[in-house]
Structure formats: structure tokens, C-alpha cells
Design a protein that fits this description.
The protein is globular, with a radius of gyration of 36 Å. The model has no long low-confidence stretch (mean pLDDT about 95). It has 7 domains: about 230 residues, Sandwich (Thaumatin), CATH 2.60.110; about 110 residues, no CATH class; about 35 residues, no CATH class; about 170 residues, no CATH class; about 130 residues, Immunoglobulin-like, CATH 2.60.40; about 140 residues, Sandwich (Jelly Rolls), CATH 2.60.120; about 160 residues, Calcium-mediated lectin (Jelly Rolls, Sandwich). By secondary structure, the chain is mostly beta strands. Helices cover about 10% and strands about 35% of the residues. It is built from 17 helices and 73 strands.
Length: about 1100
């Protein structure tokens, strides 16, 4: 448990109790709220002489993860209303003026996390000076103000409002009358409605000129924002995954809006549309709204789960809100349109502050800029607190000050020794004229960056030719990765060592010439000769070699680093080249050739951070991290997402949720099956043979709202959730189903997997949406969902239009129907389209969604393929389809190129074995219930789900291909892998989009799988069989014919004549037409017919 210990200094108590001797009363109230802000978790008021001189000790409740404590001083005259605070929103500027009180506050997090912090906040206004101290192990961290409250108010805050308005308000009644009550902040002022107290003292229009300066493509395009969102739940208790964001600004003159657009490296997806007026209303206070779009051309914005509308407040606690935080901070501190000047006079290259990876806070608010530059505007109130306090002056002060080595606003509340929250938070409230350091030593901590060390004696040390103190092992380690991003392997990294000055007084640099590794990830040893002299190459570079077996991706170490005997030395770390290059200036202080461990003895600029071993005196090694906290100090174009096993196994996603799909193709509804009562994994029994899959949030369990407030099985925006499915009863791995997530990583499959009787396990793995081949997993497989499919055998009967099931009391809601072609007297190309209608007579597709076109309703196809003259049957089709109770199975006859007859006559006859004999316009079938899917039916699952002639095959798998045909031409049969997840609208081959283009067909030929080819023809009745050993990666494969005339024919309409040249005649049975329309094709689809089986019937 953590205690909040509040002490009023003797100066403040005397100030309040002396004043209370006058007419009226002085009230001091402490009121604390948790993050809900609804009801105080602590509230106590002290009046006049009862205001305590001793410490107020408050035990904060153990179940409070975060909260805010207010300290209220009221000057109550004879007509002043009494304090009446029942909820956090009661404390506001209007109420404070009406009831004549000042209010100040601190914020805290107590979730037991290493990220838990406490801070002073002056965002709402400033009245009372405070000292916040947190004992933590052997040290005590503190935060306060550089000057007394009176000095800050009268000398710094007095007339900084718009048009130099007075920002101070005085007590109007009671014992404290006419003394300063509080300084209003911009956040509070712009939130007041016109006519309310404090309104207009600051104005959002103060930002108009700055915003206008970016309303052109050239200026906007220079602005870049990048960083890491840690992951958090928003105000609606919906968790958003941690992820790297990288955005650049665009000005859209046509729509008069700004866009923050994700770059190639951004894991966070979504285009953020910002109206300039909303932007203007967002800088002083997060009053503005934005919209998130999947594409800038979309007309409908993305709807965030439980957000209540399409607009998103700029302050929302999610990945887009975090990117906006950085973007808005650039205005607050005045970074846009200016460049910084290094503290080192020898570094003359301006530092581009349009990029937030250069936002050293010492350049904020117009400080240390090139050639006297000044930003168009900065937040004057926030500038005061940034320069003279450790308190928040604006909502995003933490973003601005997070890079400080010390003196930032956040104090840790996590004790790394006990792995729990600290025991005490100590707060001292000061009198108005009391300077913090006069009350408590080391209370105010001047904000400090360790980014520069001046040379001693006017010059930096040069390195000795011989290694000093060779008995020690001096090294420098560079870390170039964060929680998910790493420097690209091919980006050059060079260490440069100061070698004095040339005749013009410019630095001379000696680079480390690194050999022996293709990547920078190694321990690089400075080579020495037999006399311990550093070996220099002919060009003056140091000879450095990678030590074998030392590769640690994301980290590089320089061993036997040249160091000076004593004094300050200067090194440079150069990362990248061209426009994205970053040069870090590293300064070291050495004694006896080793590094001095004291704070500030080692320094680096460019937002990198130094970590020293926990020793006093001197040390042999230290680490430089180019990713400090959630920030990056490098251009994101130099980075990539890494997928090492220690990253992908860091967190196991929840199991998928099973359910059904319904509705229409435009409005799909997912309904979870009951019984999925566990967050991590579930095992349920199904009495139906179809199942869609979704993320945890699709569950309808009463605990779902709680589950989605933390990490689940969401993926990163637009990424792919690949669902691997294994039939454990029959030891078969059936085709996976992929679902592309929305912008927030929520996903559900758009198809229902088809399952016969048996037990199935389902596991989800995340892949990048840019990884079209799905080759590199981003997570470990999820926890397991187990589906036990138990379909009772229902009766089957014929009717005037087809077939239906006879329901019973078993609870089974559907059965699988076996259909075998027994004869046909129709032309070779004739095939039956199997489709179903619901109990209202509406056609429904394979996913239960209502459609109006029989082609969209197609469940599967079955027929018998004849030779040209009908003298022999090449293949009889076999098929299994799923039919629900209350549904009817119908038949449509497809002949010619694409003639479909939905009114074909159907006759049925019940057989003694429970099967039904069917004649559909000349094609004869036998239908029977069979709830165990055979090997062919399992392989054909993808054909039924997606209505596309293809199979899912694994690398190295063996498949038997039987071919037959009736043609005078010689044609060859092949297979090609699709880069599809599978979404027919997004098919590519070799990166070329599916379509009737020469480019697509050329890509097909270039990527044919090398494991199979069969050339046949010039015969009215040929037969052949070969085994295909899949040479390509796991994935969806389509059959390809290359005709005697050189035409490339694929399923669908991506053929030179735009016609379909592949037709399905049953499970895994496809027929080709080998002539185009221009070549007088007969479209009989029997020129080459193929049937696929697993080799020896084994999957």
C-alpha cells in the first residue's frame, strides 16, 4: 500500500491561519479521486486554526490504479458559498471563482507497473507552490518549482495572455481578499464558454499564423513524427496494442485539411484527417476532433470500438492520440519551421526540428536556434513551467520533457528492489512567498540534458597511438532497436574518433574501418600490433575486425576502444547516409584511460541516451541507446520491424473465438457460439458444420468487456490473422483461413470454415499485411481453440426443386451431403451449380449471407466431363456440400461459355438406403448424408469457401495429378502460387495484381511452381498421372494452362479474351478450354481435365 503524506509548511499554515483571524474563514480541503472521477476516495476539510501543523497521512486504497489529488484553499467571506465537491468535474475555474478558492493538484499511477509515475501538474492553473518527493530505495526523487509562487505569478505569468492580458485572479472576499488566488492556464481559458470567467484571456486563434505557415505542400511535407505507443486502454476501457508509429504531414488544398499519413515503416495504420480549425482548437487544450481513414480517398471514417461516433478527440489514449500528442507538441514548443544549433561551436550543421527525432528539449520555446531564428509562436504559459519548474504546464509536457536526464516532471512510483509500488509519496505545500529550496534541500531539480561537454583547456583530447592500460577492456556498446523496430542490417554505422584540428581549426576524424561482417551487429575489436599500438590503415582509418560468434542483432560493441589518459574526448557515431543520415556527438570524460561514472561525465546529443554501470569512480564500459524510452532518434526510413524469436514469443495471443456469419455481404454479422467462457482458450461442441473465427472482442460472453481492456489477440492495424486448423481426429491439416484486421487490429474471418464430424484445433498467428507470402510470423501461435463437431445423422428427402433435411431433436442444425455423378447425357462442358435458399426462399452464399445472383450463391459444382464425341467419360464429379436445417439445396445448370439455367427440371427418388437419386436436366446424381469429410472434401474446402478453382498446398507436400482430355492441340499444365490471404480482390502473383493484363500473365509464367509440369494433347482421349512435389512455399495454388498457341489460361477472367477458361466439375476437378474466343473456341472445357488427390490419400 502507498501512503500520500501531505504537509503544510509553517509559512503556508501561518499565512492561512493568520488571515483567518479577519472576517470569514479559511478552509483547506484535500480531495482525491480515482481515474473515474465520479466519487471522492478521500475528502477532508480543515478550517482556520484546525488547519494541521502535522503531516496528513492518507493510505491510498490498494484497488486504485490511478488518481488525482486536489488541494483547495478557500477564502470564505460572509456571502461566499460553501465548498460542495462531489465529483471531479465540480472542481473548475468557474466554481473556483464563484466560491473563492484556488486549487492545485498532483497525479499518480499505482498499478504495480514499472511505468507508474507521479507528477505535479499546473495544466489547469497555478496557485500554490509544492514540493513532491518520492523515497525510492536509497534515493529520493523530487519535483518542485525554481521560484516562489508569488515570483512565478508576478514576474513570469502576470501578463502573458493574448494581447498581454493579465492571467492572475485574486480572492474576492474573506480573509485572503485581494491576494492572488490563481494564475489561469491556456488549457482552462480556452475551455471556458464566452462570457464565463477566464474566457478570452488566452485564445486558440493565437495559433492561426503558425498553422497557416504549414498550409502548403512544401512546408507540410517537412514535418515528420515517429515514436512508440506502449499500448494502453482508452477512456472506454478498450485496449490498443503497443506499436511503432511513423507519420508525415500533408496539406490537402482541395479539401482544405491536413493529413498525417503513415510511412512505409509505421506499424500504426490509418490516415489522420485534421481540419485546421480543429487543429487550432487542439494545441492549448485537447478540444479538437480528428477522423481516421483507411485511405485518403475513403468517404467514411473508421469507427473506433465503443467510441460513440466517427470523430476521435485528439487527446484519446490510443495509438493515433499518441502520434497526435507529438504533432501538437511541435506547435507548443515551436519546433516547426526552425533549426537548432548545437552547443558545440564546432558542429555547424543546423538541426532540423521539423522531425521529432531531433527534439532535444533544450531547443524548445525558441532556445538555442540557428542564427537567432524564432518560431512563429509558442505556448507562453508552458514555456514558463518548462524553464522554471518540474511541473506540467500543458497536457503534453511529459512528451516535451521525457528526454531530460533529470528534472523532468515524472517521478517513478515503482520500487525495482521490491517489484512493487513505493510506500510513500510525500507532498509539501508552500507559502506564497516561499522558495522551495529554502524549505527543503534538493526539492527543485533543474531540467538537464547530458548532450554536451565542453573541452578542458579549449581542446578535446587526442587518442594515444598505443593502447593505454592494456590490462583493462574498454568498450562502447550501441543499441539500435526498441520494442519492435531495429536499424536495417545494411545501414552503415561508423565510429569516428577525434584526431585534433587541421590548419583551419576544423576537427580531424579517424574512422573505424570495419571488416569481417555483413551487418553491424558484432563486437568490433580495434586491432593492435605486438607492441599494443593501434593499427592504422593507409588511409588513416583504424583497423577494426568483427570478432566471430559475437552477433547480437540490434547491438554493436567496440572493444579496446581508444581512450585518452584523462580529460574530455570527442567521438562521433554516424548512422546511415544521404538525407536520412544522423551524426551523434559523443563526449567522454576519462581518468586513467577509464570512463568517469559520475552523472554528466559522459554525454551524447541527438536524443540518444547513455547508460552507465551502477558503479562509482570509473568504469570500463558504457552503453548508448539510440531509442530512449518510447522515442526514436533516427529517421524511420532506416528501420524495420524485427521478428526474432525472443520478440515473437514474448506474448501468446488469446485463442480465436468461433461463431457464425449472417446478414448481407454489405452488413456482415458475427455471432459467437455460446460456451466460450474463458479468455485464453476454450473447447466447445458444435452441432453444425460451419464456423467463422474472430478476435476476443467478437465473443458474447459477459466478461468480454473486461477481457478487451487488456492484451488479447488483436493484431497491429491491417495485419493478417492466419488461422491454422488441424483435424486431430483424422490427423489432417486443412486449409488455413486468413482475416485481415481493421485499422485497430480487430479481425474476423469473412468466410466460414467447413467442418465435418471430428475434433479440430485452431491457432492464430499474426503476419504483416505487407508480407503477401505470409512467410514471417510476427507472433507465436495463439492459445488453442478446440472445436468438437458432433453432427447427428439427419434424414434427407427430395422435393420439387432439390433436397432438404429432416430435423430431429438432436440439436444438430445441418448435415453434409455427399453427391456423386452417376451419368450424364449433356454436352462435355455441362456442370451443376449447387446453391441453397433459406427458410424464406432467399438465396444465401456459403457464409449464410443473402445474395441475389446464383453465381454468388454457389456452394460448389458437380458434373461429368465427356470427350468431344461423348464416347467416353473423362471424369465423374464428386462433391460434398453443407446444408442447414430449414434450407433447400437447389441446382442450376451451367453450359456453353456461361449460360446458366436456374429452372432446370429436377426429379428425385428416395432409395432404400436413405440416399436420394436425382436427375437434373440430364445429369444423374446420387445424394446421401455423410458427416465425415473425406480427403477430397477437405482439400476442396477452399474451393467451396471462395468459389475459386484452387487448392491449399504445403511446401514439400506430394499431390497426385490425374489428367485427361480431348483436343487436337498440345497444351501444358502447371501450378502457380497466389500471393493472397485469401481475398480475391487482393490477389497478386509476384507482386503483380490479378487481372486481364499481359503483366499479370507474364508474372504467372515467371512464377510457375517448378515441382510440376505435364504436357499433353493431340488426342481425342488422353490420360496421364504425375506426382507434384510442391516446390514453393505454403499457400494457395491455382492450375495454369499454357496452350499450344502460347496463351496463358488461369481461373477467372484474367485471360486474354476476358472469358473463363477453367470450370469446376467436382471437388478438386477442373476442366480447361484451350482456345480463345478469337480462335473460335467451343468452350467445352474438356481439352484438359485434371483431378487432384493427396499422394496415397495422405494429407
Amino acid at each position: 500500500m502507498t501512503n500520500l503524506n501531505i504537509t503544510l509548511s509553517s509559512d503556508l499554515r501561518n499565512q492561512l491561519t493568520t488571515a483567518s483571524a479577519a472576517a470569514g474563514h479559511v478552509n483547506f480541503q484535500v480531495v482525491i479521486f480515482d481515474n473515474s472521477g465520479t466519487t471522492p476516495i478521500y475528502q477532508q476539510t480543515y478550517t482556520d486554526s484546525a488547519i494541521p501543523s502535522s503531516t496528513i497521512n492518507i493510505a491510498l486504497p490498494a484497488d486504485v490504479d490511478s488518481g488525482k489529488a486536489y488541494f483547495i484553499i478557500q477564502s470564505q467571506g460572509t456571502t461566499t458559498p460553501a465548498l460542495s465537491i462531489t465529483q471531479q468535474s465540480d472542481i473548475n475555474w468557474t466554481d473556483a471563482q464563484d466560491k473563492n478558492y484556488r486549487y492545485d493538484s498532483i497525479e499518480f499511477n499505482l498499478s504495480g507497473s514499472p511505468n507508474d509515475k507521479a507528477n505535479l501538474t499546473s495544466v489547469a492553473g497555478f496557485g500554490t507552490g509544492m514540493i513532491l518527493q518520492v523515497p525510492n530505495g536509497s534515493t529520493t526523487e523530487s519535483a518542485s518549482f525554481q521560484y516562489s509562487a508569488s515570483t512565478l505569478q508576478n514576474s513570469y505569468l502576470h501578463t502573458i495572455g493574448a494581447n498581454n492580458q493579465d492571467t492572475l485572479s485574486s480572492f474576492s472576499d474573506g480573509p485572503l481578499k485581494n491576494s492572488v488566488r490563481e494564475a489561469i492556464s491556456p488549457t482552462t481559458s480556452v475551455g471556458q464558454a464566452s462570457g464565463q470567467p477566464g474566457s478570452g484571456i488566452y485564445s486558440n486563434t493565437q495559433w492561426a499564423s503558425y498553422i497557416d505557415s504549414l498550409k502548403n505542400a512544401a512546408a507540410a511535407d517537412k514535418v515528420h513524427i515517429a515514436g512508440y505507443f506502449n499500448g494502453a486502454k482508452d477512456a472506454n476501457a478498450v485496449y490498443h496494442n503497443g506499436s511503432f508509429y511513423s507519420y508525415h504531414l500533408e496539406w490537402d488544398a482541395a479539401q482544405n485539411v491536413f493529413w498525417l499519413s503513415p510511412t512505409e515503416q509505421s506499424q500504426v495504420q490509418g490516415y489522420i484527417k485534421i481540419d485546421p480549425t480543429e487543429l487550432q482548437n487542439s494545441i492549448y487544450s485537447t478540444l479538437g476532433d480528428v477522423e481516421i481513414y483507411k485511405s485518403k480517398s475513403d468517404t467514411t471514417p473508421y469507427q473506433i470500438l465503443d467510441n460513440g461516433g466517427s470523430a476521435m478527440n485528439v487527446g484519446d489514449n490510443n495509438q493515433w492520440g499518441t502520434a497526435l500528442r507529438d504533432f501538437l507538441t511541435g506547435f507548443t514548443a515551436g519546433f516547426y519551421g526552425v533549426t537548432g544549433q548545437s552547443a558545440n561551436a564546432e558542429v555547424t550543421t543546423p538541426i532540423d526540428l521539423n522531425n521529432n527525432w531531433n527534439w532535444d528539449p533544450t531547443y524548445g520555446f525558441g532556445q538555442h536556434l540557428t542564427n537567432g531564428q524564432q518560431p512563429i509562436f509558442t505556448d507562453p504559459y508552458s514555456a514558463v513551467f518548462a524553464a522554471h519548474s518540474n511541473s506540467y504546464g500543458s497536457a503534453y509536457s511529459d512528451a516535451l520533457a521525457s528526454q531530460y536526464a533529470k528534472g523532468g516532471p515524472l517521478l517513478s512510483l515503482y520500487d525495482s528492489g521490491t517489484h512493487a509500488n513505493v510506500s510513500d509519496i510525500n507532498l509539501t505545500l508552500l507559502g506564497d512567498g516561499e522558495t522551495p529550496d529554502s524549505n527543503t534541500a534538493n526539492s527543485y531539480v533543474a531540467p538537464t540534458m547530458y548532450n554536451y561537454i565542453a573541452p578542458t583547456g579549449g581542446h578535446y583530447q587526442t587518442m594515444p597511438a598505443t593502447e593505454g592500460d592494456p590490462g583493462t577492456f574498454r568498450s562502447l556498446t550501441l543499441t539500435l532497436q526498441n520494442a519492435s523496430m531495429r536499424l536495417n542490417d545494411d545501414v552503415p554505422v561508423t565510429l569516428q574518433i577525434y584526431g585534433g584540428e587541421d590548419s583551419s581549426g576544423h576537427p580531424i576524424w579517424h574512422s573505424a574501418s570495419m571488416t569481417g561482417s555483413d551487418t553491424p551487429w558484432a563486437t568490433w575489436n580495434f586491432n593492435l600490433d605486438a607492441n599494443n599500438n593501434y593499427i592504422l590503415n593507409a588511409d588513416g582509418t583504424y583497423s577494426v575486425t568483427a570478432l566471430p560468434g559475437t552477433s547480437v542483432p540490434g547491438s554493436m560493441t567496440f572493444a579496446h576502444l581508444p581512450t585518452a589518459a584523462s580529460g574530455v574526448s570527442w567521438y562521433r557515431v554516424v548512422v546511415g547516409d544521404g538525407d536520412a543520415q544522423k551524426i551523434y556527438n559523443l563526449y567522454t570524460t576519462t581518468s586513467g584511460y577509464q570512463f568517469v561514472a559520475a552523472d554528466g561525465s559522459q554525454a551524447i546529443d541527438g536524443l540518444a541516451a547513455i547508460t552507465m554501470p551502477g558503479h562509482s569512480g570509473t568504469v570500463e564500459t558504457f552503453t548508448v541507446n539510440m531509442f530512449n524510452g518510447t522515442s526514436t532518434s533516427l529517421d524511420p526510413s532506416l528501420l524495420h520491424q524485427y521478428t526474432d524469436s525472443n520478440y515473437t514469443t514474448a506474448s501468446v495471443p488469446n485463442a480465436a473465438v468461433a461463431g457464425t456469419l449472417s446478414g448481407t455481404t454489405d452488413h456482415v454479422t458475427f455471432t459467437a457460439f455460446s460456451g466460450q467462457t474463458n479468455q485464453v482458450s476454450n473447447s466447445i461442441t458444435l452441432h453444425q458444420g460451419e464456423s467463422a473465427l474472430g478476435w476476443t472482442g467478437t465473443n458474447n460472453d459477459s466478461s468480454t468487456a473486461s477481457w478487451i481492456s487488456g492484451i488479447t489477440n488483436k493484431v497491429n492495424g491491417l495485419n493478417v490473422a492466419l488461422l491454422s486448423i488441424v483435424d486431430t481426429t483424422h490427423h489432417l491439416s486443412i486449409a488455413p483461413v486468413a482475416a485481415q484486421a481493421d485499422l485497430d487490429g480487430q479481425w474476423q474471418t469473412q468466410v466460414m470454415q467447413q467442418l465435418g464430424n471430428g475434433t479440430y484445433t485452431v491457432n492464430m498467428t499474426e503476419y504483416s499485411f505487407k508480407d503477401s507470402a505470409l512467410t514471417t510470423a510476427l507472433t507465436s501461435p495463439s492459445s488453442t481453440l478446440t472445436l468438437n463437431v458432433d453432427l447427428a445423422h439427419l434424414g434427407l428427402e427430395g422435393n420439387a426443386t432439390g433436397l432438404n433435411l429432416i430435423s430431429d431433436a438432436s440439436g444438430t442444425t445441418g448435415n453434409w451431403i455427399d453427391l456423386d455423378t452417376t451419368a450424364s447425357n449433356l454436352p462435355p462442358e455441362a456442370t451443376l451449380i449447387l446453391y441453397r435458399t433459406n427458410n424464406a426462399g432467399q438465396m444465401i452464399d456459403a457464409n449464410g449471407q443473402i445474395v441475389t445472383d446464383v453465381k454468388d450463391a454457389a456452394l460448389a459444382y458437380v458434373g461429368a466431363v465427356q470427350t468431344d464425341h461423348g464416347t467416353a467419360t473423362l471424369f465423374d464429379g464428386h462433391q460434398q456440400v453443407y446444408l442447414g436445417t430449414g434450407q433447400n439445396l437447389h441446382f442450376a445448370l451451367q453450359t456453353g461459355q456461361n449460360t446458366i439455367n436456374t429452372n432446370v427440371p429436377v426429379t428425385t427418388s428416395a432409395q432404400g438406403d436413405g440416399s436420394v437419386a436425382i436427375n437434373v436436366g440430364g445429369i444423374q446424381l446420387k445424394a446421401a448424408v455423410n458427416n465425415t469429410l473425406d480427403d477430397a472434401a477437405n482439400m476442396a474446402t477452399v474451393q467451396r469457401m471462395y468459389d475459386f478453382p484452387m487448392v491449399y498446398a504445403h511446401h514439400g507436400e506430394q499431390l497426385d495429378i490425374n489428367v485427361a482430355g480431348s483436343t487436337d492441340d498440345v497444351n501444358s499444365l502447371h501450378f502457380v502460387r497466389l500471393d493472397a490471404n485469401f481475398n480475391k480482390d487482393q490477389i497478386t502473383v509476384g507482386g503483380v495484381a490479378y487481372g486481364n493484363t499481359d503483366a499479370f500473365r507474364a508474372a504467372v509464367v515467371a512464377h510457375l511452381d517448378s515441382g510440376y509440369s505435364d504436357t499433353q494433347g493431340a488426342s481425342q482421349n488422353f490420360h496421364d498421372s504425375k506426382t507434384w512435389t510442391v516446390a514453393g512455399a505454403d499457400g494457395f495454388y491455382i492450375p495454369v494452362m499454357i496452350s499450344q498457341h502460347g496463351d496463358v489460361f488461369v481461373p477467372g477472367t484474367a485471360n486474354v479474351d476476358g472469358a473463363e477458361h477453367v470450370r469446376t466439375f467436382g471437388a478438386n476437378t477442373f476442366g480447361f478450354e484451350d482456345l480463345t474466343a478469337a480462335q473460335h473456341s467451343d468452350f467445352d472445357y474438356n481439352d484438359m481435365v485434371m483431378q487432384i488427390h493427396h499422394h496415397d490419400g495422405v494429407s
